[in-house]
Prior knowledge:
The complex is a heterodimer. Chain A has helices at 25-40, 62-68, 85-98, 117-123, 127-132, 142-156, 160-174, 189-193, 222-228, 256-267, 284-293, 302-307, 330-334, 341-353, and strands spanning 7-18, 49-53, 75-78, 105-111, 197-199, 202-203, 212-221, 232-242, 276-278, 309-310, 321-322, 367-376, 381-390. Chain A is of the alpha/beta class. Chain A folds into 2 domains: 7-116 and 212-228, Peroxisomal Thiolase, Chain A, domain 1; 137-209 and 236-390, Peroxisomal Thiolase, Chain A, domain 1, CATH 3.40.47. In chain A, helix 7 packs across helix 11 (284-293). The two termini of chain A are 23 Å apart. The model of chain B has no long low-confidence stretch (mean pLDDT 93). Chain B has 4 helices and 10 strands, in the order H-E-H-E-E-E-E-H-E-E-E-E-H-E. Chain B has helices spanning 2-7, 24-32, 88-94, 153-163, and strands at residues 15-16, 39-43, 49-50, 65-69, 73-82, 99-106, 111-116, 126-133, 139-145, 169-170. By secondary structure, chain B is an alpha+beta fold. Chain B starts with a helix and ends in a 5-residue tail after the last strand. The chains are: A alpha/beta, B alpha+beta. The A-B interface holds A 116, 118-120, 122-124, 127-128, 130-140, 142-144, 146-148, 150-151, 154, 196-201, 249-250, 378-379 and B 1-2, 4-5, 8, 18-19, 21-23, 25-26, 29, 51-53, 77-87, 89-90, 98-99, 101-103, 105, 111-115, 123, 134, 138, 140-141.
Amino acid sequence: MRSYEGIVLTSPISLGYARQSAHGAGWYVGSVLRELLGATGIEKADVDGLSVSSFSLGADSAVALTQQLGLCVRWIEEANVGGVSGVLALRRAARAVQCGEAEIVACIGGDGAAHRSFELMAAQFSNWSIDAAFPYGAAGPNGPFSLITEHYMNRYGARREDFARICLDQRYNANHYPPALLGHKTLSLDDYLTARPIAGPLHLFDCVMPCAGGEGFLVMSEERALHLGIPGVRILAADERHNAHAEDPIQDRGGWTDYIDALYDRAHAGPEDVDLLQTYDDYPVISMMQMEDLGFCAKGEGPQFVQGTDMRFDHSGPAKNKLPHNTCGGQLSCGQAGAAAGFLGVTETLRQLTGAAVSHQVPQARLGLISGYGMVNYDRGLCSAAALLAGGDV
Amino acid sequence: MRKRLKLNRPSLRQRARPPRHRTASGARFSAANLSGILKLQHCTACQHIQYPPAELCGVCLADALVYRDTDNGGTLLAQSDLHHSLWEYFKRRLGDGPWSVGTVQLDGGPTMIVHLGPGEMAPGDRVQVFSHSDASQSAVLIAVPDSVDLRTREARRAIVLAMGLNAPAIRPTGA
């Protein structure tokens, strides 16, 4: 695979997180674009590429947004791939800029949260979900993921105390990231273990809170970023798989295992070099699965790994091994803003690698690994994507 | 769909029913399963058993799927007791205790999310799966222990009755 040399990601924006919102997805996408322009001093006319991810645009498409927002672009993409939308957007936008098809691409994920909109989305997420998943208890994503979690616990001996490690350290991180919707609350092991049951082994704090929010960043050439005087982050390697390991009757691994070694090779790095990790944490078992598949520990050793690893952003936990993980609190503590949740890991990594995180800055953050996971078409998440990003001088 | 969601509103619904919405393929699945213990799509070109219902064979892509009686033996891979639901029918049923669902891998290949019927079943156990109409007149899959006799229609109906699946959930009165 060709390298992404000469391309940078800049100006992470996260805005408008709310449990419910009167605003539609278009408002979130447009507001992120306005903030991107404001943060960089770029004119709207200079944005010639647009990548939009959203579940709640309704009758609108990315093209409709160009007219509403007064944009004229020569490259457009609408990638409704949920939890991998951020990594997919950066990969495609980087190639577009590299190939000269666009100069500045705005990559934006945004979703509203109207009253009962989550119920609507869960009830009609996909054809297979309509016919063969939703009628069985109508639990939304909690249904399939409770089965995945239960299977993982049985097979590898994971306990709820192990999943708690992920949730508790993320909540600590969120306590230092003001926009996180649950950041004002602390979470103790006792709170976690005694929470009300939701589905099988899943209890309240294993589940994300659906919310509204917008996330976005810009993709441009290194020269352009240098000229504009804005810090950028390079893509060392990135990859994706969809519907990998279809032969597994229940999911306990994702497509990362297909390419993770090659990904590290291309970046001339290994898991031990990663300064911060952002996984897609729709449920803690999925984060644990990603830690295994991304090479931080062997399959089935996730529970021991999280018990022996401090995942706080500031290395303040007691465990010896340090791996800041979901450093803004992830979706479990920020809320899951629809397709924007697939951007959260990217924008957070850009903040960290450009030293812009301030209140929750990871010390000496140079190499960040982002992993995306998503789209429960029926019984499992089909998409798995990953990107290794490096900060430093542009 | 929006209208159906409106009808899911607790205040409007004396008799709540399970989700009725299906795709065209899902409706054909319900029609095919009006009789028999379990009918699934078989590919006449490559013998693949297709589930969830689809228009094309997921292996050879042939337009050659037909519904046939299917060996209903399988293994329970995971089970989960639901304590929360987005749908009024299940919310009311949850008042009587958690609703059990599971993942079954049929001996013929497909994995399916199912309602778990009465009887003790643990992951790894042999189970059998049958289809039955629910209170929304859609065919749903139910797994029961291997020892249960499913041969007669009456036996299968009795299981569904015991689960409350083929009756609407009535709005609680008072309070």
